[in-house]
Design a protein that fits this description.
The chain is an alpha+beta fold and 245 residues long. The chain is built from eight helices and eleven strands. The strands form three sheets. It has a six-stranded antiparallel β-sheet with strand order 4-5-6-9-8-7. Strands 3-11-10 form a three-stranded mixed β-sheet. The chain has a two-stranded antiparallel sheet with strand order 1-2.
Length: 245
């Protein structure tokens, strides 16, 4: 049977996406011009523009008047159901950080909401997320040991665009999810959390609990975030997307 050849724009799309995933273009940077890309791939600018627009619709790129195409994220909501805190901070021209506080594999520290979701051994990852060196979020992420049996401190860079927990879970361990359920609440910072976030005890802060589910509806991780400041919503396309760690 004769195999059909993919259209040129799809070939270009796949090649640019592979470059993005390989880290050739950093978040917030501009891609080469359409003219340069057309010479690189030996195709017309119309073909290049169609490939780039596909990446815009998927959420990887944004088209800016007078600036061309800019890398927006490596974990678009369309592919992860959550937007990346790391990518949002980078796009703001600021510096995200992720101080690792511990990887407990397996853990005995399991909160009540987590026990309701999982009846199996779990890994607990605790990190302090920073913006320009200042603490902004204290995160606790529980993942089944069977999905990340060898998870260790070396899996968690503290700088750069690969510190996103979304990318770490997908790239390092092949964890896949299609939907998420998030709960927002206002809580009082207990002494431990107050110390982590460098605020006074009993300061009102935001609590964000997120459960991610695989295509079969089974939970694959639970994220508990305590944070200073507001949560930003992206209402593009009619669906609210929130930032995650």
């Amino acid at each position: 049977m004769k195999t059909s050849t993919p259209p040129k724009y799809q070939v270009v799309h796949d090649a640019i996406l592979s470059r993005l995933m390989a880290g050739h273009y950093s978040i917030g940077t501009r891609l080469p011009t359409e003219e340069l890309l057309s010479k690189t791939f030996d195709v017309s600018r119309v073909t290049i523009r169609k490939a780039l627009e596909m990446l815009v619709r998927a959420g990887y790129l944004t088209a800016r008047q007078g600036s061309g195409y800019v890398v927006a994220t490596l974990s678009p909501p369309s592919s992860t159901c959550m937007a990346s805190f790391t990518d949002q901070v980078l796009n703001e021209g600021r510096i995200p950080g992720a101080k690792l506080l511990g990887v407990d594999n397996p853990t005995t520290e399991i909160s009540a909401p987590v026990r309701e979701l999982f009846d199996e051994p779990l890994v607990l990852v605790q990190r302090l997320r920073t913006v320009d060196g200042l603490p902004r979020m204290f995160t606790q992420t529980w993942i089944p040991v069977r999905l990340a049996p060898n998870m260790a401190a070396s899996d968690f860079p503290e700088t750069g665009q690969e510190q996103s927990i979304l990318r770490i879970l997908r790239r390092n361990f092949g964890v896949e999810w299609t939907t998420a359920c998030e709960t927002l609440d206002s809580v009082i910072a207990n002494p431990e959390i107050a110390t982590r976030l460098d605020v006074a005890p009993n300061t009102p802060i935001l609590s964000q609990a997120c459960t991610a589910f695989d295509p079969s509806g089974q939970p694959v991780f639970f994220d508990q975030v305590y944070r200073q400041g507001p949560i930003n919503f992206d209402l593009s396309g009619g669906a609210a997307q929130q930032t995650s760690a």
